[in-house]
Design brief:
alpha/beta; single chain; 12 helices; TRAP transporter substrate-binding protein; disordered N terminus; DctP_fam
Length: 325
Amino acid sequence: MTQFSFAATALAVGLTLAGAATAQEYTARFSLDVQEGNPKYLAAESFANAVSEATDGAVKIQLFANGLLGGEVESAEGMRLGSIQGGIITSSVFATWVPEVQVLDLPFLFRDDAHAVAANPVLSERLADKFEAQGFHLLGFSINGARQPMSTFPITSPEDVKGKKMRVIQSPIHIALWEAVGAAPVPIPAAEVYNSMQTGVVDFFDNTATNYLTFKFFEVAPYYTDLRHVYAMGTWVVAKSWWDSLPAEYQAAITEAAASAQAEVAPMLAEVDAASLAETEAQGATINVIEDKQPWIDLMEPVWAEFAPKIPGAEATIEAVQAIE
């Protein structure tokens, strides 16, 4: 081999290795707690494809569904440790690090789906620095689903839930909002909801429309009430350490792709929810839509007075969200 050909070969190998290192450096393990086909997964898939296309394949978002990388808390911790680079995680999971997100659990913060979607840029702008300080880069929010009462009895007004045992998530705000309407909240882990309803430990609980079908909740809670008192929000985040390693043009591409994908979630979710509820109705469930929510809002108003002052920056965030038309 001539000196020239040896040098050329060495250069080619060096460029190949450099390319491989670059590709590996910009690969993100992206954690999702839902199965393939779920609107959140489909939006993440759209996001990953858009990022790959915009960066000519230099940034690869690898999706791990079904909690394969761990639960939501473990995934958030993994981002801080660097073992996971991103994910879509329920906002309340971040309350330990970013207490400001607790404002999203206040009852009737959002008027409807459109309002929750429109709040994304407002919330992102207000909370980005708070996430950054805790090792996360915030890409925005999307709707995981609205919480809806599911019960063994019909619910048409707050009067119907007085004295009834309500399964709640282990959150002071959620306990307080159901106490405010006269129910008797019982904190129970998610995995025990079906059995608790089946055995009469509780009379009702709240969850999302899709889960009403997926987890066969309609079998033990034949009455579904469309109230939308709290929206579960998915938080799109990546590890700050990984984000900081990216060139600025790749950061811009990821930001744009995330915003576009987040906008896809709500219409997909509405379609899936409608189909899910139709299927439960076909199997005997009763669906009731609360048209006048004001009695519920009035009774839950004290929860705002009690908790908003305890949440950093809540007053300004609430004002900004309510100003959205």
